[in-house]
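This section describes the prediction task in plain terms. A model, or a person checking by hand, is given the sequence of a single protein chain and must write out its three-dimensional structure as a string of tokens. No templates, partner chains or ligands are provided. The sample shown here is typical of the held-out split.
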Amino acid sequence: MVNDQQYMQRALALARAAQDKGEVPVGAIIVLDDEIVAEGFNCPISTHDPSAHAEMIVLRRAALKFKNYRLPQATLYVTLEPCVMCAGAMIHARVRRCVFGAYDKKSGAAGSVLNIFDEKALNHRVIVEGGVLAEACSELLSTFFQSRRS
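The expected answer:
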């Protein structure tokens, strides 16, 4: 649990970097053997790419690093509950574990709206833990959206 919080702190720092660039503040890292092997943040606005979510960025980077689209021993940390696209990509990559911060009541696919990870018809199960540093992750997102509305 201590490592989960430390890794989520790094994901939060990346989320702040996204915010500094005008992106929705979501950060993610991939950890393998207690080492960060990929990190990134949301960038769909600047890249004009709807798939450029933080999770997709780190999955691509880790896969390129290891020259393998499968990441069976990896843990992905992300500051916001994954959407359907990102959850699906984690399943296809065979990620072992997903740890997220804030719950997403509008499009969360790890239990808030849907639970793709628990779909019995799919051939891989990702271990999921939500709510790690949830308050800090939620506050960052809330502050970002409040400033955009005003």
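For orientation: DSSP finds five helices and five strands in the chain.
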